[in-house]
């Protein structure tokens, strides 16, 4: 959801809003809130995950523009890595805030979207908001998420800063709402470094009763 330009964009990559190099693993700074290794509610509080190590929660002005169902975390700054949590986005809502007058638009989520349509929406977000000049789908396959049939979407993208980034999204449409985790990071070193954390949280994520 890491944005040089305000994914992560859905990825410190596309979510990367600007190079933030002063943040380290488990840092607690002004625009960040330390997330400790314990059960933690994300987004609007309807989903809970357990991070395997300390992360940094961005204080609501990352790639997805303070949408209340969306929350962004990073280890080393959104320019380098990030995870975006989407916790039950309702049908008819957008992942990002955008003006109707803007020429390029990210489509709104619909409850009847298929996995390819959701991933196309994510790609649009990376291109429109994240500034991706090239976007490649690496794989799209079925995957269980929080006990429901869902999908796994692997991709990579080249942004205007000439840095390749790689990402993975795992999600499902549950009771008409979109639940999603999106990981995005610089392709060299950073992606491999935090992918195990993302997988651990994707596997332990659950909807709170």
Automatic annotation (TrEMBL):
It comes from the Bacteria. Keywords: Signal. Residues 1-25 form the signal peptide. PROSITE patterns: PROKAR_LIPOPROTEIN. The keyword Signal applies. This is Lipoprotein.
